[in-house]
Specification:
It is built from 8 helices and 2 strands. It has 190 residues and is mainly α. Helices cover 57% and strands 7% of the residues. Strands 1-2 form a two-stranded antiparallel sheet. The protein has 2 domains: 41-104, no CATH class; 115-188, no CATH class. The radius of gyration is 31 Å and the shape is rod-shaped.
């Protein structure tokens, strides 16, 4: 009888420890979340949009390069380091970004320049190519300060006969000289 007493006591202590541990884990799991804590989006498309908004342009480009190369772990690490989100949240975000590719959107959307805002050109994230040709002569202007709207205004100025204003506007919105701008504008006149 005495030989069974020690194992029974050990079994009782282990059972009590398991019961106390189970109750502690149940309390942690049942703990209510604060209502003001941000909840991750449930929709994968919304999760992808929210995840893309947290990245800078360079981080966004590098993350999609890693996804395209099939390097999911490196993409998750990049997102984890860039945002500081948890590992599981980073994994979910990269999965959503892979399933629903998102374009890079700058924090503050650039406003379209107005007619009188021609003096302060802004730089766009892309290079715009304007090509003019007449006969065998072709000229090209490539600049990240041009877009369809600005180039349309320059063409309108040139076609209306105000070639000097068109050349000055083209010089302001590109890195070419006034002489090169006049040559380009001469090809636009009709």
């Amino acid at each position: 009888m005495e030989s069974l007493l020690v194992p029974l006591l050990i079994l009782a202590f282990v059972g009590a420890g398991v019961l106390i541990g189970a109750r502690a884990f149940a309390r942690i799991g049942a703990r209510p979340r604060p209502e003001n804590a941000p909840q991750p989006p449930r929709d994968p498309l919304e999760l992808a949009r929210a995840a893309a908004a947290k990245l800078s342009q360079d981080q966004h480009r590098r993350l999609y390069a890693l996804i395209a190369q099939g390097q999911a772990m490196a993409a998750i690490k990049l997102y984890f380091d860039a945002t500081g989100d948890g590992l599981r949240a980073s994994r979910d975000a990269v999965g959503a970004l892979a399933a629903h590719p998102q374009p890079f959107r700058p924090e503050a959307p650039a406003e379209a320049p107005t007619e009188d805002d021609d003096d302060a050109p802004q730089r766009f994230a892309y290079r715009y190519r304007a090509i003019a040709s007449k006969g065998d002569v072709t000229r090209e202007v490539s600049s990240n300060m041009l877009n369809d709207e600005i180039y349309g205004r320059i063409r309108t100025l040139a076609r209306s006969g105000d070639t000097e204003a068109a050349a000055e506007a083209l010089t302001r919105h590109s890195d070419i000289s006034i002489k090169q701008a006049r040559e380009f504008i001469a090809l636009l006149e009709d």
